[in-house]
Write a structure and sequence with these properties.
Blueprint (H helix, E strand, L loop, with lengths): L1 H15 L9 E2 L6 H14 L10 E4 L8 E8 L4 E8 L5 E8 L4 H18 L3 H10 L3 E5 L4 E9 L4 E8 L2
Antiparallel strand pairs: 1-8, 2-3, 3-4, 4-5, 5-8, 6-7, 7-8
Helix pairs in contact: 2-3
């Protein structure tokens, strides 16, 4: 497990430097704290009768004023298949970026991550229509989320160590 987290930390640090387009200002993906957000995802999963297997949070990088974001890792592991969820925050408050990564070639982990992404989209405020529109766009997808009053953007990431997607938001 430790080796898996080290790989994802490296990938995380690579993608934490990713910036939204210059035309729109980046805004938080969610105004909830990571604890509130994960609890809401877990409660929604229970309503949908989806089993979740979340680990405790691990704080990976320190927050520096006007510097890099704090990154917290949370592992989703059903015993055989896993994914890592990385929340990028400013001082553990609202969530600036969500990254979900899984081992390349692991189809079940990919399906689990997609289910988590769907649940997270609902918690963010995406309607079924907005989610469908986003899914149909593929990489670089974005859609205006009326409930959250922000544009939710998704980028697909792939390296030799991991594949996944990053959710960010913009103000227009």
């Amino acid at each position: 497990m430790y080796r898996f987290q080290k790989i994802f930390l490296a990938v995380c640090l690579l993608f934490c430097s990713w910036q939204a387009s210059a035309a729109a200002a980046p805004v938080p993906v969610s105004d909830m704290s990571i604890y509130q957000f994960t609890k809401a995802v877990d409660q929604l999963a229970a309503q949908e009768e989806i089993q979740t297997y979340f680990s405790d949070y691990q704080h990976l990088t320190p927050y520096e004023k006007d510097g890099p974001l704090d990154v917290y890792a949370l592992e989703y592991n059903d015993g055989a298949h896993r994914a890592v969820i990385l929340y990028a925050t400013r001082d553990a408050s609202c969530i600036e970026r969500i990254t979900i990564l899984w081992p390349p070639g692991d189809e079940i982990s990919m399906e689990n991550a997609a289910d988590l992404g769907d649940l997270m989209g609902i918690v963010i405020g995406l309607t079924e229509e907005e989610s469908d529109e986003m899914t149909s766009q593929g990489n670089g997808a974005n859609v205006w989320c009326k409930a959250a009053n922000r544009r939710i953007c998704a980028e697909i990431v792939q390296t030799s160590a991991a594949q996944g997607f990053v959710l960010t938001a913009e103000d227009r």
